[in-house]
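Margin note from the TA: students keep mixing up input and output lines. Inputs are the sequences; the output is the structure of the whole complex. Example:
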Amino acid sequence: MLRRRPRGARAARAAGAERSALGLRRAALGYVGLFVALPVAALAARALADGPASLLAALRRPEAFTSLWLTFRLALALIAVNTVMGTLMAWVLVRHPFPGRSLVNALIDLPFAIPTIVTGLMLIVLYGPQGVVGRFLSERGVEIIYAKPGIVLALLFVTFPFVVRAVQPVLMELDRDMEEAAATLGASRWTVFRRVVLPALLPAILTGAALSFSRALGEFGSVIMVAGNIPLRTQTAPVYVYGEIESDNHAGALAVSLVLLLGSLFVLIVLHRLQTLGRRRDG
Amino acid sequence: MGIKIRNLTKRFPPARGETEGLLAVDDVSFAVPEGHLVALLGPSGSGKSTILRAIAGLEIPDAGTIELEGRDVTGVPAHRRGIGFVFQHYALFRHATVRGNIAFGLEVRRWPREAIRGRVAELLDLVQLVGHADRYPAQLSGGQRQRVALARALAPRPSVLLLDEPFGALDAKVRRNLAAQLRQLHDEVRTTTVFVTHDQEEAIEIADEIVVLNRGRVEQTGTAEEIYDGPATRFVASFIGNVNVIEGRVEAGGLRLGPRRVPAPDLAAPPGAGEVVLLVRPEDLAIVAAAEGDAGAAGTLPAEVRGVHYRGDRFEIDLDLGGLPVRAIEPKQVARAAARRAGERVRVRFLRHSVFETPDQHVRIREQMRSLGYME
């Protein structure tokens, strides 16, 4: 008896641990389900409730279609710009110290911290008809605000930090020995960057690019301030969704929302797959 | 041809709050003959890695010249020097397989695809990693990684191979093994090789020649034997191998070693008699079986055994030499036959030693010691 009791106690403890692990798992999953998955599912269900025909019809409206086309095009263009400029920015911050680096470093987070509506206002102040730069450009026939360039500027501003902040820590941790090894093997500086640094940074660059893509798809606050909201020309998809809800056309709002949702989801899934592949290699 | 280093000097920029930077390499000159394997040996901070990195072009010297194969490469960037470099922490490309790592140097030199394939296979065979070509570095052990690094460095047939503490991150057994493999590999490939180490045994085991460095300066250059048996400075004597430091004084008619005065009539009138330091390796401190007054006792000093320590292949014997603690080594059989025990009174003789004196009488005193029989 004396020898069996501790074993029984251990079994009971193990069962208790099992139960509490189960409880934790349930709590975590329940939380995600309730606050993340449920709203997504609700939107998808409502959008599909009237059948694919009405969904397609809602998307075929020129205003809906062009707003989506514009939004995706801009988001893709921003990936290109952010990938290059974000990586460059991170490179300079990490590898080429300059006076005032910590100030610049702090500035990069600013777009995250500023309310997007304020971002829109800042752009209007600078580039609007009353603004110094705006008036100068307007006199020369270049319109920024209430035109596509305004949207681009707004999106550039709000998505700028993603790639920088994703790449910077990886670059800081990067083993300089690897680059020196490549140099001793005969690689020029550009070859070292292309063949050694870039592959190491790629997962981080992709993460930053994907996040900036999703953000560009959904950006509303700053865009509604500067876009002018002209249907078929400067109306982005989120702004279109907002307009449709305002005018009680829920079908149109749901259809475009669903496409935006799927676009973001697709990018996230691709990103996740790429990261899993990368980890397998490092494991 | 090999490598010629002349008056190499490198000072690192001062850290914040310092006025002077660290003088890492101070007017260093030495040559590595073609096909030799040379060790740069020194404690940390002796400048050995900085010298190696300067040869590779990874560090730009403030002064001096570096010649590789008769070509002055002092201003040539690393990627045009045609060297191979092996880093302490391997520095393998994590995103590339073993094959990809080894092929890298050939690809950037635009070797034809077929030639690359053949050369990679050759090197995989050379470092015994044939079955591991498609693994990633993270899937290899430390020893395997370092072999990949070695293969990668050798692949483009560099004129010079440089290794920076190549086995420093490995455990003792793998380390010995790899060091022996490097020596073997060198005997096959015969690439002029310089490797940096702080491990004197490693240097003695595999180097043709050793350059001993301390505080950015060359203390001595020579074969392991020359350096071990004839250290040029006190630093070399104590850094390489174990040594008994015996401080003494030359006096009229004798030599004072520690608290004991040894009669030495031939030393009767040493002009400017002064302090001397005797450095005697434990294996050069012979315990002789002779009583005072015996013929065999000439040139010996009385001592008392303080401790006898079994060390597997030998015994280490702690002695009290007239108040000075010294250590001797005796082969196992000898010590057992003599039944060494603490408290035993014995006599010792220096089979070989180095003398360093505070005034400049090095050679003369050495001769006198020898003539007195204190030294063979």
